[in-house]
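[SOLVED] Need 3D model of a two-part complex

Original post:
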Amino acid sequence: MSRKTLLLVLLMVVTALLALVPLASAQTPDETTLVIAQSVDVGALEPSLVGSRAESNIFNHVFATLFEIADDGALVPYLATGYTISEDGTEWTFTLNEGLTCHDGEALTAEDVAYSFTRAADPANAFTGNTVGFVFPSIGYLDARADSDLEVTIVTDRAQSESLRLGLISEVYIHCQDYYSSMSLEEVAEAPVGSGPYRFVEWVRDDYVLIEKVPDYTLRTANFEQMYWRVIPEASTRVAELIAGNVDIIANVPPDQVDAVNNSGSATIQAVAGTRRMYIGFQFGEAFAGEPGYDAIQNTDVRVALQYAVDVPTICATLLGTECTRASSMVNDPNSNPNLSPYPYDAAQAEALLDAAGYPRDANGVRFEITLQGPRGRYLNDANVVLAIGQYLTDVGVQTNVEILDWSSEYLPMVREKNVGPLFFLGSGGSTWSALYDMADLSAPDAGTNYTNWANAEWFELWDQTAGVDPEAERVLVDQMLEVFFNDPPWLLLYFQPDFYGVSSRLNWTARRDEQIVVYAAALN
Amino acid sequence: MGQFIARRLLQSIVVIFGVTLLTFMTLHLAGDPTYLYVSERASEEEIIAARKALGFDRPLPVQYLSFVGGMLQGDLGNSLRARKPALDLVLERLPATLELTLFALVLSTTLSIPIGIFAAMRRGSPADGGIMILAMFGQSMPGFWLGIMLILTVGLGLRILPISGHVAVLQPMLDGDFGKAIGNIPEAIRHLILPGLTISVFSLSRNARLVRSSMLEVLSQDYITTARSKGLGERKVIMRHAFRNALLPLVTLLGLEFGFLLSGVVVTETVFSWPGVGRLVFNAITQRDIPLVQAAVVMFSFLFIFLNLLVDLIYAQLDPRIRLS
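Solution:
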């Protein structure tokens, strides 16, 4: 190729590239558009099939619920104005607002609310996920019926804590019967028609979901005309898009990129103490009898001693990139027992208590050996946190063998089958609206989420007493139970997992603690 | 040729069965996938019900045979997460991956050939040395790292190209909306450049070195000496006599190249939020969406077999000495 030809080709390439440059800013959203980036896509836009936070975040805008959990944890009316409870506590009757409609213009009445429940529960639909897999069994759901145009009754099999039941019912997304009964499951899963302040426009799989404001929606304020929920799986890419101004909100910012965002001038980090309780479980299951350390941790004094052995604030500051206060119970504030203070880090106290419990150091400096299992790739810096805890325990003479396992292929099945331990690291989602919700992990000795197989009789007797009592009596019982938990701990209490949100400087929005992204009230600065 | 094609297709059936069986066994080796489809607070009863609804309660041989039976009827099952036909999901995302892979293939091929020829013609010169060093770097750089660096420097630093995302051209074409497809081309190219470079750098570097070596070997042949001694200009010697023969190894590689590029798209599609099959399969594996993984594996197997067959046919056309029998 001659030099002239080569120069000509180079010139053409450069010109072509320069021609593309003015379009570089085309990705920045305008004042009417909000862009949120999540790390995963929705699996389906089916309101009865909520399987991830990514789905519930979008559904919170497209679908309304009977009541809603506000940012501060209060349960506030939404589609319903109020409710009554039958004498035996099994039937809850909600009264709806007048004039409600779905996005296709159909009137939303009590019949549609009942349908939303019965459709989810219909075995023919084979729904899995949060509604059918957790909410319905937790409230003891039996049926739903429309008593009039504006009154709908949810029928359950037992009385229950008012706040607990109301919060759980608030997780059921309401949709209209006419549309959903006329289409196949596959069709509606790609073209939802909702009842919330935003309506569905478009879904490009693994790229984005676009929703737009419903004109004249009165129940909630919607400040943006449209919202893009983009899918950006790689954390560095999400951060880059945030800093470039192409995205307004991102979640799950890695701690090592917090400074980059805060120094960018175009966005800041909001670090919130989430509601996910992180703990080390002590395994009581008899299947582990004979394992090294099993006998030791059956001793309450040993478990209390180990609480002093771990420096939780240092773990937060060095491994999680934020300050934290150690958890004093398994319940999120403001619902925890105010009389309980977190166990402080005091290695000397831990050693003294272990000596007193009958586990002195031997000639090798070891009190007893034990295995600590933990996951990789599920929680914030989980593997390193587990390694650090293992070292803290080893430092006080509990020789800890740490096993780090892949979350989805190894650890999760083991946890679900209660086959982890004798020590295991785990997180459990909590709430801001009900102490009993947080305590429901231990609702029964054989409860599915009682991964420790803890069987403290006093705890479970008190738990049974919480059904259907008034809020004041419930509070007394909760505080008693949390004292039992504190003094006979099935968990080595750690922290509430911090969540890091990146927020554009153009936006006025505050992140919630419960991992939900609710933005219809967000506004520009 | 007809016999050759028939024989290859028969062989491909065995390959596909083998690949699906291997995939099935590997996915199930990692334990019960049910737990990924239930709430973290699901009761034991709910887990059992979910296991039944998802079909995981059946013995593994029954599950696999059920899949094979469906496959023979063109039904590759429904995605567990999306609850729609798995093959539909794969085909839906295939155009995006094809756009990226073809762009990378064109980039690496069109650049590697002139670079390789240039280096061969200036063998031993500083230019040749420089190109070889760059090629070595290109082959050594991890794609994930390169992608992130391009995002930070070009996308975020210089702000001249998009950081992530996709603009479709193939899908509108397949939908018959040619106006939209053509209108999308400039924006689509802007979105293709960074991920395309990320995928193609390794191939470009390797192919440039291959073309250089192949060219050098061809240039040392007697017929090249004869061509020069006849008084032909160097450009004619290269383009008319040497080029075609030097290309043969590259053509052989191109069939495998596509498969190699396809395997590389998983990382690139994740880094650049490209909604292609690579990411779909990666997510399906982590979510243990077994029907979706199987459907993608079957589709990729067909694609790979078809491309290799095509390469063999092209090779036979390029080199009359080759007989497919």
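Edit: Chain B has two domains: 2-72, 93-324.
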